Amino acid sequence: MECDLMETDILESLEDLGYKGPLLEDGALSQAVSAGASSPEFTKLCAWLVSELRVFCKLEENVQATNSPSEAEEFQLEVSGLLGEMNCPYLSLTSGDVTKRLLVQKNCLLLLTYLISELEAARMLCVNTPPKKAQEGGGSEVFQELKGICIALGMSKPPANITMFQFFSGIEKKLKETLAKVPPNHVGKPLLKKPMGPAHWEKIEAINQAIANEYEVRRKLLIKRLDVTVQSFGWSDRAKSQTEKLAKVYQPKRSVLSPKSTISVAHLLAARQDLSKILRTSSGSIREKTACAINKVIEVPLIFFRYIHFYL
Questions:
Q1: For residues 232, 233, 238 and 242, what is the CA-based torsion angle, rounded to 10 degrees?
Q2: Share of the chain above pLDDT 70, in %
Q3: Residue 65 near residue 39, CB atoms below 8 Å
Q4: What is the pLDDT at residue 311?
Q5: For residue 309, what pLDDT is reported?
Q6: DSSP the chain
Q7: If pLDDT is split at 50, 70 and 90, which confidence band does 247 have?
Q8: Torsion of CA 21, 25, 30, 36, to 10 degrees
Q9: CA 266 to CA 275: how far, in whole Å?
Q10: Residue 136 binned pLDDT confidence (cut-offs 50, 70, 90)
Q11: Does residue 277 register a pLDDT over 70?
Q12: What is residue 296's predicted lDDT score, i.e. its pLDDT?
């Protein structure tokens, strides 16, 4: 009875939100939530709700729809990361075995109810408090950066009729005065010395974006490995009774892990020459100080496993 009422409320809310998918047909939603994460149609509905929610909320995590029941486990891991970031209050959705949470009909209905309520609230807040213009609330992002530079250098507010050339000339003059007061080589020489033109900067931006995309893929892979590793901790009989405690410790730390890169061209301009002098942890001079007796114990098993992975 309770599930029937939840389904009715969900269908009414989906129509109000503008959902036009196949789960509005008679009995389709009930069949989908019964299969839960094993149902591609259920995952498509969740993915649609999350995509609509991301329009209004800055969410790092995302949920992808599945194409077959074999992808159910991966879908549940993605949902777990999303709910952790959103600080979901429902313990049945955030604790216990990650691979079994969304195989229960009531939990699936609860997930849809939660996502729908969050989307409804986000849309209402957007209507009641429309986004302010760049001039309101402190100005644009570029203005905020320039303002931060002036504050850091102790500069007074520039007059309204100043030109951009005069403004940046004033910043350059103040920087030279500040650097003259510090010891020699305190800041270091820049790593990038060659003057760049507009065409060069476009290429640098493209290179940085390509590297950022590759970094994001690798970061997602590492985060996925982390999720699977932590999930495997709960397979033992002793750990099954501690799943709730494990979730309380892991989810807050997991929610802050972002796959996005924060490195920009500004970091290239700020890089000093000492950045190119990084010693490898395996170099001889470093290993003289880090080598210890335990290395001899773990060295053979490590080599053994490397050979296994290589030949398999």
A1: -120
A2: 83
A3: no
A4: 41
A5: 41
A6: -HHHHHHHHHHHHHHHHT--SGGGSTTHHHHHHHHGGG-HHHHHHHHHHHHHHHHHS--S------SSGGGHHHHHHHHHHHHHHTT---HHHHSS-TTTGGGSHHHHHHHHHHHHHHHHHHHHHHHHSPPPPTTGGG--HHHHHHHHHHHHHTPPPPPTT--HHHHHHHHHHHHHHHHTTSPTTSS--BS--S---HHHHHHHHHHHHHHHHHHHHHHHHHHHHHHHHHHHHTTSHHHHTTHHHHHHHHHHHHHT---S----HHHHHH-BGGGG----TTSHHHHHHH--THHHHHHHHHHHHHHHHHH-
A7: confident
A8: -20
A9: 15
A10: very low
A11: no
A12: 54
pTM of the model: 0.46
What is the arithmetic mean of pLDDT over 171-195?
83
Tell me the C-alpha to C-alpha distance, in Å, between residue 265 and each of 5, 6, 102, 269, 274. 54, 50, 42, 7, 18
Phi, psi of 20 (to 5 degrees): -120, 20
Two structure tokens written together for 252: 């807050």
Question: CA-CA distance, 215 to 87, in Å (whole number)?
Answer: 26
Residues 63 and 14: their CA atoms lie apart, in Å, by: 18
- Which residue bears the tokens 């609860």? 110
Q: Report d(CA 96, CA 81) in Å as an integer.
A: 14
Summary mean pLDDT of the chain: 82
Task: Using CB atoms within 10 Å of the CB of residue 76, give its burial: 0 to 12 exposed, 13 to 18 middle, 19+ buried.
Answer: buried
Angle CA 46–248–38, to nearest 5? 30
Tens of pLDDT, residues 88-127: 989 999 988 888 899 999 999 999 999 999 999 988 887 7
